[in-house]
Amino acid sequence: MSLLEVKNVYKTYGSGAAVLQDVNFSIGKKQCLGLVGESGCGKSTLARCLLSIEPIDRGSIVLHNIPLHNKSERSLRPYRRHIQAVLQNPSAALNPKLKIIDSLMDPYLQFGEQTELKHFCYRNKQDFASQLLEAVELPAELAGRYPHELSGGQKQRVTIARAISIEPAIIILDEPTSSLDVLSQAAVLRLLDGLREQLGISYLFISHDLAAVHMMSQHMMVMRDGVIVDQFDKEELFAADRHPYTQELISMFE
């Protein structure tokens, strides 16, 4: 059974430029669906539509059998906890004036009290922050620091901890490693894969990096100019019948 269903989604900006055209896919529980494509092809616009930051022109976005695409901001609120995001620039995602503990607490203060958590237990702020930092393999003492005191990899781990804090059903990962060095990229990808298994979370992993998408995902999609031109299981990446654009990306991958 699908957790997220996206059907016939179109998005056009005011200029008349079509950004998304007839986008269709589904994501199952504990599945990582990878979306690869060049910069400007519509990947991040799709992420904003799934997060209900941008409205779609037509089509449907359904999470847990609940349509999200036609709801007001007020009626969306109970469902926002189920879909979170980790973006490419952790420095921009964290408020520089807040200590890490306060950034980690923000989703829980907004949504966490609405539901019983299965993997984390809230007793007090410090204990909760320690659990989250441990989950992303960071020392508990970082809770009292500010973002500028952390490395890029540490900051991205904090944003991951914040995203998992309310145990969402799905996390949109939009280029989550593109600002990191090679060693940090690999470590963060391994961490994300482990958390998916441990917490039962699903991912939409968006990247221009075919190798990273192939490593993380069970199923893959290729986007070009707002159109999903190819969809396949990861084992079929090198099949002879791949779309010509996919084959172009593979040639760069190799």
Separation of the first and last Cα atoms: 35 Å
Structural class by helix and strand composition: alpha/beta
Number of discrete helical segments: 9
Oligomer: single chain
Q: Overall pLDDT, averaged?
A: 92
Cα shape: globular
Which features would summarize this protein structure in a list?
single chain; four-stranded antiparallel beta sheet; alpha/beta; 254 residues; six-stranded mixed beta sheet; Rossmann fold
Write the layout of secondary structure elements.
Layout: E1 2-12, E2 18-28, E3 32-36, H1 43-50, E4 58-63, E5 66-67, H2 73-80, E6 83-86, H3 90-93, H4 100-110, H5 125-135, H6 152-164, E7 170-174, H7 182-199, E8 202-207, H8 210-216, E9 219-224, E10 227-233, H9 244-253
Parallel strand pairs: 3-8, 3-9, 6-7, 7-8
Antiparallel strand pairs: 1-2, 1-4, 4-5, 9-10
Helix pairs in contact: 4-5, 4-6, 6-7
Protein name: ABC transporter ATP-binding protein
Domain ABC transporter: 4-250
InterPro entries: AAA+_ATPase (IPR003593), ABC_transp_ATP-bind (IPR050319), ABC_transporter-like_ATP-bd (IPR003439), ABC_transporter-like_CS (IPR017871), P-loop_NTPase (IPR027417)
